[in-house]
Amino acid sequence: MTSTPIRSGTVLPGRRTPITLRTEDGLALVGELALPADRPPQATLICLHPLPTHGGMMDSQLYRKAAWRLPALADLAVLRFNTRGTASAAGRSDGVFDHGGLEGLDVAAAVAWAVRRGLPELWIVGWSFGADLAVRYGRVPAVRGAVLLSPPLRSSGPEDLDAWARWGRPLHALVPELDDRLRPAEARERFGVVPQAEIVGYPGAGHLWVGRADDVLDGIVSIVAPAVPTPLPRSWDGRCESVHFSVHRG
Q: What Gene Ontology molecular function terms does this protein carry (predicted)?
C-alpha cells in the first residue's frame, strides 16, 4: 500500500462522536469525542480552546489535528468542546462568554463527563485562554495533570500557581520563543513557584503555532503517553481521508 503524507486535512481512522456536555448551571455545550478505531484509548486529552472573542473554538487548528490524528497515531482519546457562547462547525454552545469566570463550570462538566464515560488517564490540555482555564480550574482529583500551550498567565494569578504547587500534579508548559504574550524566559520565572512545572521552549514558534502542529502534537504525546515513540509518523500506510476544512465562526 502506498504511504500517504499526513497533511493539514488528513483524517486518520478513528471513532468520532458528537457529544453534549451539561454544566452545573444548566447549559448544553457542543463537543466531540474522538477514540481509536478498534481499541481502547490509553489516555485522554480534554482540550480547552483559545479565546473565543479572537476566534478560538474546538476546531482551532491544533485541536482539530489532534482529534484527526492522535487516536490512530498514539491511542489517545481526544475530547474537545466549545465553551459557553462559542460556535464552530459543530454548533454553538449555550450561554455567553464570561471572560474565564463561569467557564470554570464548563471545565468541570467536561471532566465529569469523561469520568462517567470511564475514559482513562485524564489530562487537560489548555491553549492560550484555555491554558489559563487549566491553571485555574484543572485541579480536579480525576485529572492526572495539565499541558499548557502558549500560556499567557493573564486571568490566572500567583494564587492559582501556588495552589497547583501544593496540589503536586504535573504541569507542563510548551512555550513559543516568539510568543507576544509570554516567552520562555519569563515563563520559567513565573512558573518557578511550581516545583513540578516543566517548561519547554520552542525556537522560532509563535503564539498560534502556525506551521508547528507536528511539533506540538509530538510534545503532548511525549508527556501523556511516554511509551509512544516520538516524533510521530509523518505518513500513513492505511486507509485515511483528506478533507478541505473551512473554519466556521458562526
A: hydrolase activity
